Amino acid sequence: MKTKRIASLLLSAALLLSLAVPAFAENPTTEETAEPETAVQEVGPEALTEDDAVVPVAEPTAKKEYTYVAIGDSVTAGVGLSGLQYKLVQNGFDMSGNYKGYDGQCFVGYVADQLGLDRDHAINLGLPAVMTRDLADLIETGAMPAMNHYSGVQYTSVPELKEYIQKADLITLQIGANDALIRTIVALGEATNWKSEKLANSMVTGMFRNLTPDNIDYFMDCLKQLTLTPSEFRAVMHLLTTGMNQICTSTYADTVTQLERVMKDLRELNPEAQIMILSYNNPVPLMPSWSRHFRRLNTAAAKLAAQYDVTYVPIPYTRTANDGHPTVSGHKYIGRQILKAVNY
User: Fold this and answer.
1) Residue 249's Cα: distance from chain center in Å?
2) Among 125, 255, 310, 318, which residue is least crowded by beta carbons within 10 Å?
3) With a threshold of 0.90, does the pTM exceed it?
4) Where are the domains of the chain?
């Protein structure tokens, strides 16, 4: 299917080019926090009574390390930051290298630094292009049963997901925006007979975060390819007006249903952890349909959070680049909002 092929190419390029574009300053290194040595008091034989000599000395009980696990899509993973770790595999990406090797400038790294957690105790399980239903399947079975025909991605094996969830003291959840956004990108491609593919790839990958002369030339070349026929122009205008609203309306109910499924699964797997859900921020505020959609999702997420003993964390002022992903300052802001709500 052409839609599947183009979507897969778009998302592959998003990861490849996000590493190639020097959009940000050099990443700060994350120092590993050494585990404290357990003090052992030596007792000489002269201090022992006859009864003491036959009673075994109990080993000191090790204190459980605090563990933070972040679950979500490309925003959590840190797409757009130069330190993203991944491998291309059939039908998607292997993100296992990013679990502990994530860019220190993403919000997961910021929270970890502020809480004094090393990379064994602050895990980034962000999976680019996942939708809410995909994540629910992954939590329950460790795999997506089939390729998502909108994103062209299928995570066939993430067995670590459930194990990390069960060990966590703090879990942050960020998911749901892709349900409508990816469908809209595919719809734009269909409306233009894929003339928009080159421009869409460039925007999604963050190529224009830095407006260098080369990037400006490339942008102009993309615009030249976007010469539309009258029927294509009408299709684009329909998408920008009623079409986007239709996509948001058609995806809303399923997003909420699957979001509840995810929250329920997380709470059942880990009844004791503090679970947070991050609110939705609108990366395209000039589109009224998107603003309404994300307001509705935020209302639903807050209600579900109360139902499942989950902390709702608003992030309305997240700064995003033109690819819809947070800037470095946007990630830092998200991290600060998490820290305000954390019980540590």
Assistant:
1) 23
2) 310
3) no
4) 2-20+64-177+254-341
